[in-house]
């Protein structure tokens, strides 16, 4: 059905080629222009305390939103960041009401059990649907929550058939997601943004400049969206990871059902190879 097709497109967009037209234009050398500015959004004074401001990257030429893809680690330092897109599109409430699961509590529980620091790129709509989980993730120091828009609509077009956000509405869509995280009680919120579908262009980078976020892409595609073979996902990740890599996966069990199972291989194998898991903020801090 149409809605399912749209979700499929959206998820596929999160996890497919980092080389398609809209990606990669802003990453070169950006990591070296890191600045300590742009603190995380302020949060209510309630325990646990908000973390220290997250490291960000200085704006690109003309104030464009900077883009981060992977760290150029010094001396081949074996660190890797696993990232999980918690996808839910603005119009998918009725499907959730009918029982479709856009969350993945088992994945989060396993990451805790394995003590794997991770970054969750959450849509605002997801946080509204699962406020208890958003708060739980967003108050656990093992995790940080980054912004994946409120609506999960496209910020450049075409983008896997997603509806498009106009330039004037882009910052508001991002702000609305941060507000949803705050409303849920999340405090470990970082000023990073992943474009839905990974689709962006200079107009989007310009329109989002006032939002003061660092856009975060990836260099390793897990292929977990709609995958049915966990081993294939694991092998793709293991084949792609190098020092400083950033892996894109999903935290949406209805459309990425094998992610947790794939990680049961990926996590011990990467550790065996000498890798340490870090959050995106740690990767950016390394430049
Ligand atoms: Zn997504």
Automatic annotation (TrEMBL):
Pfam families: Polysacc_deac_1 (PF01522)
Biased composition (Gly residues): 14-29
Segments for region (Disordered): 13-66
All copies of domain NodB homology, residue ranges: 78-278
PROSITE patterns the record matches: NODB (PS51677)
Biased composition (Pro residues): 38-54
SUPFAM superfamilies hit by this protein: Glycoside hydrolase/deacetylase
Taxonomy, superkingdom: Bacteria
Database matches in PANTHER family: GLYCOSYL TRANSFERASE-RELATED (PTHR10587), SECRETED PROTEIN (PTHR10587:SF134)
Name the record gives this protein: Polysaccharide deacetylase family protein
């Amino acid at each position: 059905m149409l809605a399912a097709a749209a979700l499929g497109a959206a998820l596929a967009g999160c996890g497919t080629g980092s080389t398609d037209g809209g990606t990669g234009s802003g990453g070169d050398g950006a990591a070296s222009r890191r600045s300590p500015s742009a603190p995380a959004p302020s949060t209510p004074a309630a325990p646990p305390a908000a973390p220290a401001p997250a490291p960000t990257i200085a704006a690109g030429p003309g104030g464009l939103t900077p883009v981060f893809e992977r760290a150029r680690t010094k001396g081949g330092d074996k660190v890797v960041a696993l990232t999980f897109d918690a996808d839910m599109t603005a119009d998918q409430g009725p499907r959730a009401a009918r029982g479709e699961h856009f969350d993945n509590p088992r994945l989060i529980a396993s990451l805790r059990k394995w003590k794997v620091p991770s970054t969750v790129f959450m849509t605002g709509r997801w946080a509204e649907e699962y406020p208890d989980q958003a708060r739980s993730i967003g108050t656990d120091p093992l995790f940080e929550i980054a912004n994946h828009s409120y609506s999960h609509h496209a910020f450049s077009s075409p983008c896997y058939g997603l509806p498009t956000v106009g330039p004037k509405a882009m910052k508001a869509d991002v702000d609305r997601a941060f507000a949803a995280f705050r409303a849920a009680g999340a405090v470990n919120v970082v000023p990073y943004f992943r474009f839905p579908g990974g689709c962006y262009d200079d107009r989007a980078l310009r329109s989002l400049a006032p939002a003061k976020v660092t856009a975060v892409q990836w260099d390793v595609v897990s292929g977990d969206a709609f995958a049915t073979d966990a081993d294939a996902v694991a092998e793709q990740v293991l084949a792609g990871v190098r020092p400083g890599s950033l892996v894109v996966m999903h935290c949406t069990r209805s459309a990425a059902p094998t992610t947790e199972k794939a990680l049961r291989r990926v996590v011990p194998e990467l550790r065996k190879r000498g890798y340490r898991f870090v959050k995106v903020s740690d990767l950016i801090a390394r430049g």
